[in-house]
Write a structure and sequence with these properties.
The complex is a heterodimer of chains A (349) and B (325). Chain A has 349 residues and is an alpha/beta fold. Chain A has two domains: 1-101 and 184-195 and 209-301 and 323-349, 3-Layer(aba) Sandwich (Rossmann fold), CATH 3.40.50; 109-182, no CATH class. Chain A is built from eleven helices and twelve strands. Chain A has helices at residues 50-58, 92-97, 119-130, 135-148, 154-157, 167-179, 197-214, 225-231, 249-254, 259-266, 310-313, and strands at residues 6-19, 22-35, 39-43, 65-75, 81-83, 102-105, 185-189, 217-222, 234-239, 242-248, 319-322, 325-327. In chain A, helix 3 runs parallel beside helix 6. The longest helix of chain A has 18 residues, at 197-214. Chain A is globular. By secondary structure, chain B is mainly alpha-helical. Chain B folds into two domains: 2-91, no CATH class; 92-319, MetI-like fold, CATH 1.10.3720.10. Chain B has 15 helices and two strands. In chain B, strands 1-2 form a two-stranded antiparallel sheet. The longest helix of chain B is centred in the middle third of the chain and has 38 residues, at 183-220. Chain B: This is ABC transporter permease. Chain B: It is found in: Cell membrane.
Chain lengths: 349, 325
Amino acid sequence: MSDSNTILKIDDLHTHYDTPQGTVRAVAGTSLEVHRGETVGIVGESGCGKSVMLRSILRIVPHPGRIIGGSIEFTRRDGETVDMVKLDPNSRKIRSIRGDEIAMIFQEPMSSLSPVHTIGDQIIEAIVLHKSVSNTEARSIAIEMLGKVAMPRPEQIVDQYPHEISGGMRQRAMIAMALSCEPRLLIADEPTTALDVTTQAQILDLMRRLQSEFNMAIMFVTHDLGVVAQMTEHVVVMYMGQVVEAGSVKELFTAPRHPYTHGLLHSIPRLGQRKLGRRLVSIKGSVPDPFARPSGCPFHTRCQYNDGDRCVREEPALREVMPGHSARCHYAETLGLQGVDKPAEAINA
Amino acid sequence: MLPYVAKRSVQMLVTVFVISIIAFIVIQLPPGDFVNSYLATLSGGQIVTQDAVAALRAQFGLDDNLAVQYFKWITNLLQGNMGISFQYQRTVIDLLSERLPLTLAITIPTAFFVYAVSIPIGIYSAVRQYSPLDYVFSLVGFIGLAVPNFLFAIIMIYVTSRYFGGNVGGLFSPQYELAPWSIGKVLDMMQNMSIAILIIGTSGTAATIRVMRGMLLDELSQAYVETARAKGLSEWRLIMKYPVRVAISPVLSTIGFTLPALISGTEITATVLNLPTTGPLLLNAVRSQDMFLAASIIFVLSILTVIGTFISDLLLVWADPRIKL
């Protein structure tokens, strides 16, 4: 499946946390690919390893987490392919990729910007770091970027502090900062979770528009399947540090192959549900204790299709069930899981 | 900024006025007055008549009621006259102008020493939390906090004189004590001072290390640090620019009370070290109820506290734009 269009290829990534209580396998064999200009949605419950996986890409996994295996191949602008896992996390090389070729925006616009530096200072810093421009030029680039993210009065905002502007505006500032060096890949870690619905729609709209303008790939992490349907072409579903299903949005929504994806899809409330006599289904139980990983398929403790034998004994591999659609379930082909309609309210740029 | 400074200046004047009243009353609170304690120090056998005592009281103006005494003191003070020390039989101004410069000569370098040592160590300890050096600094820091400075002074005096034959205590070695100012005397003073600074600054350094370390640990896990890291900044550069800048605010706010603490908080240590500073002078004045001297020193210290607080407020406004004037 790998071709010249692939810009990021994660293969069997393992990131573990050694704690006094034991080792947590936060990322336990994740594999995925991102192609040029494509948006990949990454979905999963809290604690499924999404955030750690993203931080592994940039090598900014907080202590005591560390990558213990696998590879993360990133194709740079000049065509060079580097394995991020092999780089020293403090090396000049990885720092020249961070913020320049791979940029990241975070969940909390309230705390993701320094409270004691102006918006402009923080954007200009990123520009000066990666581009050989003067401070004055960087400042005009920063103002231009703020304009591109539809920030009102960019010339004034550039000299303001984060506490002086609203949450939505802060997230716009974060996006402006991330895009200031025109990255090839933008990693967005739940960028709209902390925002209210109206602001969320504006930010998503903005990201779509900027994506086509900059022709960058986006890895979009969320636990909101509605957002996935609006924003992405490909979806990767994660459970306990592993990819359990991956495929196009359409495939995944209409014909899920993994019981976990099926559960997620059916736990979204829908209008008219009650009239049709359908109840909201939830996935039974909760995410297992990370220190006591279930044997076999990690999902068997919560799966209604658990056969009590193979599922408990043998860990399924991620395999292709249809071209471009893979799932990590022994019975992916035979369960015949019911999909849902893809939400129609896609945002038009 | 200017209206803020003006507003604060007026507040400071009011504060200082209130302090002057409190300082004066506090000095009067212990039973008896200077004449009592003066008589108590006279060698036994001397007979002092009631008339003589009354004459002394009248001479020192101790017969007037408290309000009158305060009024006399404060009007004189405003004209730059702090009264006379009963005990030393010299003007308070005279005594202070002798002691204050030396006090400042010790305390200002001590303050610099405290911050210059503790801030870098605090930063290192936080960034390399639980590293061997962090443990070493923490251990040394806790000992520094737990051992009273005067005890540390006594140990230092013992160790230097026992093992190095050196002389600790006082600001000058005996040969320079009465000599006129010369390069040799200055060098000698600096040598003696460095030991005094080390002793007086220990607990402040230890405390500031703990504050700096704790504050920075809180900030290091903040999301904006991760943002800076994802930007591609090098680790030390981002730590110095972002979390340290935020974590330093509470340390700056301590400068306000460090100033007076260094001047008055060292009475016992300064007495042990025989330093000619205001500390021992105040201690003596309070013990012998030398009221004008004691009240004046307390008054000067209070002004320093008020000024120190003002300085740290200004520093905080500069360091943290979220603080509105």
